[in-house]
Each structure stands twice: as C-alpha cells, then as structure tokens.
Amino acid sequence: MHRVGEGGKRWALACGWAAAEATVWPLMPEAVLVPMVVARPADWWWLALASVAGSSIGGAASYAVGRRPGSGATVAQLWLVRPAMVAAADAWLVDEGPTGVRHQPLSGLPFKVFARVAGARGLPPLAFLAWAAVARGARFLAVCAAAGLAGHRFGRLVRQRRLLLLGLWALVFTAGLARTVRAWGQGGQEKVRPLQTLSRTAI
What we know:
Blueprint: H1 2-21, H2 30-39, H3 44-66, H4 83-96, H5 104-107, H6 111-121, H7 125-153, H8 155-160, H9 162-186, H10 193-202
C-alpha cells in the first residue's frame, strides 16, 4: 500500500506539473521527470503518460483562454515567453494547421503559446490536442526512457550521491532554459509580423 501511495503522489506530481506548464508555469515537466525516473526507473512509462495527460488538460485550458477576445495581446506577457516565440508558433500553425504543433518539442517554445495561438486562430481543438499529445508524448517517452536507462545503469551512484546529482541536474536544466529564452529574445525578430497580425485580426 505504501508503494501504491508513493506511486500515486509521483503520478500526480508529473500530471500536475505538466498541466501547470501548459497554462502558466514556466518550467518544463522534464525538470521533475528526469530525477523521479532516475530514482525509480521502473516508473518511466507511467510518469511519461501522466505528463501527457496533464499536458493535454493544460493545453485544453490554454486553448480555451486563447478563444477569448483580446487574449492575443497577453500571450507574450507570460513568464519567460518572448514575442518571437509567439510569432513563430503562429506562423507554424497558420502554415500547417493543427499539425504545426509538431514543431513544439524541439523548438524550445512553450506549449502554452501554441495552445493559446491555436485557440485564437480557431483551429479544430480535438485535432490540435491530438497532434500535441503525439508530439509531446514522443518527447516525454524519449526523455523518460533515457532517464530510466541511466537510473538502471547507475542506480548505486544515484543512491550514494542523490543530492549532488539533483543539484547538478538543476544547474544543467536552468542553464539550458536560460540559453533558450535568451536565444528567442535576441533572435527571430524577422518573424514578429505574424504576431502583429494575430493581435489585430484573429483575436
């Protein structure tokens, strides 16, 4: 019963974190997925699916927010979101429709941005959320599988140096996030035009 209870808490954390990140929270689910899976490798697929579920719930909420009049002007005001991010997401969704969200996992753009823009553009919600679940699910599964392999291979080291490794992961994750946000803040200004169109006409 204790293991079931602990597993439920871990599932809830993964699901809740992904839902929060898909709405307002700026840190990706991988921030907690990696250390949780490394600590207990057998849970890798379960936690990945929990993140997909949470991401879908949060994505639906952000899509609904995007449907509200005037919401386009507030997307770039979200924490760690840059105007070029919104413009790029808008360009992909306008060009490709719901399948444009396939660019999200490797682009560094927050999923909440895609979801709000999709709502503002009036894209089919079920198609958008389905494509998002496939694209983000593939990333969650890949990350969790890799973390699970690392946890299985280096389990003894993880148990002996848990706090040290957790601190190193926090530093690596923070550095990567800062670099991504800085890159989108400094570059991509040539893509801001779709954001202006979104604010003027689509919302």
